[in-house]
Design goal:
Layout lengths: L19 E2 L3 H4 E11 L5 H6 L3 E2 L4 E5 L2 E5 L2 E2 L16 E4 L2 H13 L3 E10 L2 E11 L2 H24 L2
């Protein structure tokens, strides 16, 4: 009888590696599609990301010359760096397959959409970014979402009080 092969454990996010999230993205935009990309980082940017010193609040992605580029992402200067520290607010190239970029480009032309980053995390030691194809929400949509959330919290509160 042949030996069974051992299954490799799935890659789980490390408890100690930070995840930098764009908290306003799900409130401001309606997410249509997500894509995981690699990031081209230089020097001390990885160390700074591991410290959790980055901001995605005003970041967005564009397609320039068949390449994905992350703009407006601020990765703070590494605290233990020297004169060779990185520039905090530079444009960063994102790594994705050409066919994925082409699909995104076609969808961006058809619909009124934008590419926004949702989170930066580490997977097997590599910095990854999750970008989303999204459309902006109107003020009425945002108000409706807030009302639904408030009603849900109220009903859960009443259910907990009732079940005591």
């Amino acid at each position: 009888m042949a030996k069974k092969k051992k299954k490799e454990p799935k890659a789980q996010p490390n408890k100690f590696s930070p995840t930098i999230k764009n908290k306003r993205a799900k409130f401001e935009y309606q997410i249509l599609e997500k894509l995981e990309c690699g990031m081209v980082l230089v020097g001390t940017e990885v160390k700074s990301l591991r410290e959790g010193k980055a901001s995605l609040e005003e970041a967005y992605a564009r397609i320039h010359g068949g390449e994905l580029v992350l703009m407006g992402c601020n990765i703070n200067v590494y605290s233990h760096g020297n004169l060779m520290n990185h520039e905090p607010a530079r444009n960063r190239k994102l790594l994705a397959h050409k066919r994925e970029i082409k699909k995104l480009e076609d969808k961006l032309k058809q619909k009124r959409c934008t590419l926004i980053p949702l989170r930066i995390y580490f997977n097997r030691g590599k910095a990854k970014i999750e970008i989303a194809l999204a459309t902006g929400k109107s003020h009425a949509d945002k108000r409706d979402k807030l009302k639904k959330d408030q009603m849900k919290r109220d009903t859960e509160r009443e259910m907990r009080r009732f079940n005591r």
